[in-house]
Each structure stands twice: as structure tokens, then as C-alpha cells.
Amino acid sequence: MNPTEASTGDSGGESSGRSARRPAEATAADLPYLERAVDLAAEALDAGDEPFGSLLVGGDGRILAEDRNRVHTLGDRTRHPEFALVRWAVEHLDARERAAATVFTSGEHCTMCAAAHGWAGLGTVVYAHSAAELTEWLTALDAPPSPVRCLPLRDVVPGLDVRGPAPALTSRLRALHHEFHRRRTDGS
Ligand SMILES: [Zn+2]
């Protein structure tokens, strides 16, 4: 997702209704995939993009596709990795394969990517940090407000199977976002 889109993120929590049920944390088996997503986020940061990365994993556990944020290098604020993976999945997988696939992603989907995920009929999402965590980090950094409201994934795609966050990766992810905003404010 885009870090400036998380102004109202919430990974579950206090409100009533569907989003009240907080997703289960990522499992030990999820970690290698999430670590790869975080590596892709670091790659994005090195290239001058926002630190987000994602991969699409088939029902057999094989990595099918991966991408990273490219909003600055391509000058297009919709170039989120989760959206790129939806495009890839629609072009390369049938409906059954899409439903069996899992998207592992460094950050919980933004509203745009969540909707695309739902329309494409993709399966489980596992994220390393939640939208709520990102909101907390960005608020502390005085990041500019988002033009798009961020909602918990299951508020956008009811019934979606979701796991996250992954506390083992929190400090590394927080450092990536801090570094991105340090460079933004320094102009470096
Ligand atoms: Zn997005």
C-alpha cells in the first residue's frame, strides 16, 4: 500500500461488525515469504520508492510472481505491488488457481488494492504490518495526509481469509518507513 493512504487504518479492533474480529497473527510458516516481501520493500526504498513489497504464492507453495512499490520511479501513485499482482494473476491464472493463491505483503492492502484483490477472486492475504501500525508510524513522523481512506481488508472484501501482522518483522519495517520519510523530509 501507499504509506500516505493509511490515515484511518484499523486492523480490526474495537468497532462492532465484521472488522471487530482481529485477524490471527502470521504463522512461522508464513515468515520466509514475509521476509521476502520485506526484502522487496527494502529494494523499493533503495530505488527511491515507498517501502512496500508483495509476492503471489500458488496453492503448492511456489512463488509465482513478486513486485514492489514503483509510485515514484513510474510517476503513478497507483503502482502498488498488490495491484500489480492482481493484474498478473488475472492474466496467468484461472479462477480456481487464483482462489488457491496467497498474497504475502509487507503492508496490509490499501483500499484500492483490497478491492482489486476481491474483484479478481484471489485467496488469502498475509501481511507483515497492519494499516493501523503504519498509521501510527506515519502520524509520529508527521507524514502528509492520504487522499484515500484506508479500511481494514475485511471491511472491503467480506469473508476474506487474512493473517497478520508478523511481530518478528515489525522493527525492520518501522525502520524502512522511518528512513523513507527521513529522505522525503531531507530531500535526499
Ligand atoms: Zn495499494
Structure description:
The chain is of the alpha/beta class and 188 residues long. The protein is 40% helix and 13% strand. It is built from 7 helices and 5 strands. It has helices at residues 31-46, 81-92, 95-100, 111-120, 131-140, 153-156, 170-186, and strands at 53-57, 63-68, 102-107, 125-129, 162-163. The protein has a 5-stranded mixed β-sheet, with helices on both faces. Helix 1 (31-46) packs parallel to helix 7 and helix 2 runs parallel beside helix 4. It is globular. Mean pLDDT is 90; it is low at 2-19. The site of zinc ion (ZN) has 9 residues, from helix 2 and helix 4. Zinc ion is lined by residues 1-2, 80, 82-83, 109-110, 112-113.
Number of strands: 5
Radius of gyration, whole Å: 15 Å
User: What are the distinct ligands in this entry?
Assistant: zinc ion
Give a short account of the largest sheet. 5 strands, mixed
Overall pLDDT: 90
How would you spell out the order of helices and strands? Answer: HEEHHEHEHHEH
Which strand-content bin applies to the residues?
A: 5-15%
Topology:
Blueprint: H1 31-46, E1 53-57, E2 63-68, H2 81-92, H3 95-100, E3 102-107, H4 111-120, E4 125-129, H5 131-140, H6 153-156, E5 162-163, H7 170-186
Parallel strand pairs: 3-4, 4-5
Antiparallel strand pairs: 1-2, 1-3
Helix pairs in contact: 1-7, 2-4
The structure holds zinc ion.
Zinc ion binds at residues 1-2, 80, 82-83, 109-110, 112-113.
